[in-house]
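re: ur msg from earlier - yeah i can do the AR6 complex, just paste it... oh wait u already did. ok heres what im feeding in:
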Amino acid sequence: MKNKINLIQGDITEIVVDAIVNAANSSLLGGSGVDGAIHRIGGKKILEECQKIKAKQGGCKVGNAVITTAGNLFAKYVIHTVGPRWIDGKHNESELLKQCYLNSFKLALENGVKSISFPNISTGVYKFPKDKAAEIAVNTIKNCIQNEIQIEKVNIVCYENENYQIYRTLLEKL
Ligand code: AR6
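and the outut:
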């Protein structure tokens, strides 16, 4: 199980996988951070699909996920999930972050995805404490891939060194 998890420091848009997870917002219409990078490099096809989903179901709730194709990215799909904005830890933030990973995996499995890259959801603009977020991510990913044969590789892609070091320590303990 452990050897399926791959820790990478870098830009998630540059890594070849079946599905890239995006840390989106409820509008699904793009933003800054990793969302900005995915839409910038993926091109307008992704935005058009997001607009269609928004028209149909009014966007995406916090903790949920939707899937589109990946435009010009080196992937088949982008799974857009909406992380919780950190308030004080008493607003269900941890459970909602866990749901982001669970619902992303659910869509990945439904769509035959074998390899998937996750960014550090909610730890940028949404200010989720990085160590707490990493613990939730690792535990949830671990549970999702245990006894799951379809998923061959899960990349945890850290853009910043601080997150990378937190994950390195956590993954060493697995
Ligand atoms: N590749 C991988 N990780 C990245 C990249 C990249 N190219 N760019 C940034 N990160 P954030 P959030 C990291 O702010 O906190 C957007 O405006 C970044 O260092 O992208 O979930 C959305 O539209 C951080 O560790 O997402 C929403 O409005 C992590 O990605 C809101 O921000 C997440 O930071 C979502 O906030």
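cool cool. The helical segments are 33-42, 44-57, 93-110, 130-145, 161-172. ping me if u need the other ligands too
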